[in-house]
Amino acid sequence: MRKQIGQTIQLYLKEHQSLYLFTIVLFAMGVVFGAFIVNSLAATQKQELISFLQYFFKQFDQHGITDPRQYFQQSSLFYLKTVGVMWLLGLSIIGLPFILLVLFVKGVIIGFTVGFLVNQLAWQGISFSLFGVLPQNMLIVPALVMIGVGGIAFSLRLLKTGLLVKRELILPYFFRYTFLVVSMMGVLLIAVLFETFVSPQLMQYVLK
Question: How many folded domains does the chain comprise?
């Protein structure tokens, strides 16, 4: 099973190098845009956010995640829905731009989060980003990018072959795309486990 997953990933990386480059650049643009938004916030907005952040840090330092099991379930459900939507978008030609939008928005969120932490908390913000934001996203971002590229590739394949005319030709690509999505969902679950049970310990270490 592990060998089959590895072969599928290698095949997608080799076949769709240009798509990976494009989506990575798009994601990076989202990160830059998110960081830029931080600088465009009004002083009152920054103050409201920093007040909320200080309250969150205080509560988190004292209690951590109050219910790790519930947090894991909620986060897993969130990514399951996200992956399900991306999979469905990849099954239709008109869903292609929305897949790109999902990846761009993910970049914006990460860029804004890291940018705000660094902008407001300086070195502590850098430490918090490295220990609290970066680790799980090293799994989450590649997994979402691979799902996105798989969906884009399948949409382009539909456009090229014509689903209604050559349905038998598209089925192997459908199964391979679906297998990739399921595999990456497994990676996302590992990331959620890390985010639930390891990242809180690292963040509490930084706060102390």
Answer: 1
